């Protein structure tokens, strides 16, 4: 298992603009960042390209078998579930939808393992409909990670963050820009 | 001018006022009074940002999106839901990846234009503005 901090962000409706605003403001982070956005194939590379234009870290679609590198942002492609093997390697799987969605945030977050000592795992649930990510956040918390949900005021739709908060496993509920500040504080 | 936005809303007053706003901004807009009209415009070749009212008689916004996806008419579009506060969203299962944004009516016109500019860039419909 490679010794990186990991940030996994689950996001859906309202996500593209929220991610653009978030990553336009934050400096390079001492972590691998994996974004699971509910997105169909065909739109995924456009979102990755648009994020790459504003982010201070390299952004790319996650590729099957790829090893994660710190200071890089990986966007789960449409049409697959994303899992991490050993907290370090991307595995893309076809298969049935989970929570009616693909990629599923729950699938991605539940693939995380307890980090090596002194390394952080941070789970973030941002704007979206439905409840994908709630069980994922519960899992991140059980691993000893830090968990953040976007607040109702800045979420385009508060469904997913609300479902996450209702698990009782969310440490912080923040407006969008405070999420970035907290990530920096925790990682750098 | 070529339409870049389609407003789907059963209320005529809303269609007319939004149309006037977009025309004043120089943005081409089509309107549809129902999900069926929306599908007709898509079959006629419209591709762009679809502002979709949730609450419509006969076929609501969610079922309209289902028909759009089933008929392979989604690609090349971005869908933004328009809802009044308190509109139920209990028919949305399985549509999360097709709904890019969600605005509450009445919406701020300037905020809407900023969002739309970003979506036009995503679709490649217009030249990017300062690379973002």
Write the layout of secondary structure elements.
The complex is a heterodimer of chains A (188) and B (132).
Chain A: E1 6-11, H1 15-25, E2 32-37, H2 44-52, E3 59-61, E4 73-75, E5 81-85, E6 89-93, H3 105-109, E7 121-125, H4 134-142, E8 146-150, H5 159-165, E9 172-174, H6 176-187
Parallel strand pairs in A: 1-2, 1-7, 2-4, 3-4, 7-8, 8-9
Antiparallel strand pairs in A: 5-6
Chain B: E1 3-8, H1 12-24, E2 28-32, H2 35-43, E3 49-53, H3 61-70, E4 78-84, E5 99-105, H4 109-123
Parallel strand pairs in B: 1-2, 1-3, 3-4, 4-5
The main pleated sheet of chain B reads as: 5 strands, parallel
Number of helices of chain B: 4
The major pleated sheet of chain A works out as: 7 strands, parallel
* Rg from Cα of chain A: 14 Å
Q: End-to-end span of chain B in angstroms?
A: 24 Å
- Given the structure, what is the number of helices of chain A? 6
Q: Give the number of DSSP strands of chain A.
A: 9
Shape of chain B: globular
Uncertain regions of chain A: pLDDT < 50 for 5+ in a row? none
Q: Which pair has the most extensive contact?
A: A-B, 30 and 26 residues
Q: Tell the overall outline of chain A.
A: globular
Q: End-to-end distance of chain A, in Å?
A: 21 Å
Structure in words:
The complex is a heterodimer of chains A (188) and B (132). Chain A is of the alpha/beta class and 188 residues long. Chain A is built from 6 helices and 9 strands, in the order βαβαββββαβαβαβα. In chain A, strands 3-4-2-1-7-8-9 form a 7-stranded parallel beta sheet, sandwiched between helices. Chain A has a two-stranded antiparallel ribbon with strand order 5-6. In chain A, α1 (15-25) packs across α6. Chain A starts with 5 loop residues before the first strand and ends with a helix. With 132 residues, chain B is α/β, with parallel strands linked by helices. Helices cover 36% and strands 23% of the residues of chain B. In chain B, α2 runs parallel beside α3 (61-70). The two termini of chain B are 24 Å apart. Residues 126-132 of chain B have low confidence and may be disordered. Chain B has a 5-stranded parallel beta sheet with strand order 2-1-3-4-5. The interface between A and B is medium-sized, with 30 and 26 residues.
């Amino acid at each position: 298992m490679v010794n990186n901090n990991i940030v996994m962000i689950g996001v859906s409706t309202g996500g593209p603009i929220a991610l653009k605003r978030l990553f336009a403001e934050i400096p390079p982070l001492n972590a691998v960042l994996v974004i699971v956005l509910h997105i169909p194939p065909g739109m995924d590379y456009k979102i990755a390209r648009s994020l790459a234009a504003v982010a201070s870290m390299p952004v790319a679609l996650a590729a099957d078998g790829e090893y994660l590198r710190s200071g890089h942002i990986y966007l789960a492609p449409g049409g697959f579930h994303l899992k991490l093997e050993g907290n370090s390697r991307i595995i893309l799987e076809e298969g049935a939808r989970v929570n009616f969605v693909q990629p599923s945030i729950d699938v991605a977050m539940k693939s995380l393992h307890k980090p090596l000592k002194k390394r952080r795992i941070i789970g973030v649930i941002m704007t979206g409909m439905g409840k994908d990510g709630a069980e994922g956040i519960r899992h991140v918390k059980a691993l000893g990670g830090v968990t953040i949900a976007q607040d109702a005021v800045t979420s385009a739709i508060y469904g997913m963050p609300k479902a996450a908060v209702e698990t009782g496993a969310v440490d912080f509920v923040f407006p969008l820009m405070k999420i970035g500040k907290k990530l920096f504080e925790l990682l750098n | 001018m070529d339409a870049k936005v389609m407003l789907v809303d059963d209320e005529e007053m809303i269609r007319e006022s939004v149309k006037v706003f977009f025309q004043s901004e120089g943005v081409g807009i089509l309107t549809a009074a129902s999900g069926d009209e929306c599908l007709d415009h898509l079959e006629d070749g419209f591709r762009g940002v679809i502002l979709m009212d949730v609450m419509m008689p006969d076929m609501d916004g969610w079922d309209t999106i289902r028909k759009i996806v089933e008929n392979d008419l989604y690609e090349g579009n971005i869908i933004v839901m328009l809802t009044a506060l308190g509109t139920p969203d209990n028919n949305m299962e399985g549509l999360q990846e097709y709904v890019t944004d969600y605005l509450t009516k009445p919406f701020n016109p300037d905020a809407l234009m900023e969002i739309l500019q970003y979506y036009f860039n995503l679709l490649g419909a217009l030249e990017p503005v300062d690379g973002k």
